[in-house]
Amino acid sequence: MKYTTSIEIDLPREKVVQLISDPAQMPKWLRGLVLHEPTNGVHGHLGTTSRVVIQMGKQRMEATETITRVDPADLHSIPSSVVVHYDREIVGEGMWQAQRDRIIEAGPNTTLWESESEFRFDGLLMRLVALLMPGSFRKQSQQHMQDFKAFIEQGTDVRQGPN
């Protein structure tokens, strides 16, 4: 299963890149994030693996995330014509996901965040869920983007309100 979501953010790209890659900020906009800790390498750097734990209701998911692309490697003073690429592979029980993010300068104070998600499932149950309810995956991805936008533009913390 593959899909792309996008959102426009009313802030300069440099600020967006800085906050989206800051692990201390992640729990403020990534609903259900319990833990995101590097097990090998430095957060945000190519090749780094991290243990990720997400809690959604009574469902708890643990996975390993590996950063497969950071381009450019130095995320400071990026020319406006350059698209920032931040790709990850996430492997959990019965599933594999590739997340390919592109952060594009859309204007002097506007950023476009495009995210391509690709999923593969091993288990019959998850294959059925993906087949019968593919929109739920897209909806969750879009929710994460909207939560990030609300966090970065208005300071809204997902932990403060109803989920």
TrEMBL record:
User: What's a Pfam family in this record?
Assistant: Polyketide_cyc2
Query: Could you tell me which InterPro entries the record lists for this protein?
Result: Polyketide_cyclase/dehydratase (IPR019587), START-like_dom_sf (IPR023393)
Q: Which SUPFAM superfamilies match?
A: Bet v1-like
Q: Entry's Gene3D superfamilies? A: 3.30.530.20
Q: Could you identify this protein by its name?
A: Carbon monoxide dehydrogenase subunit G
Species source reads Micromonospora parathelypteridis
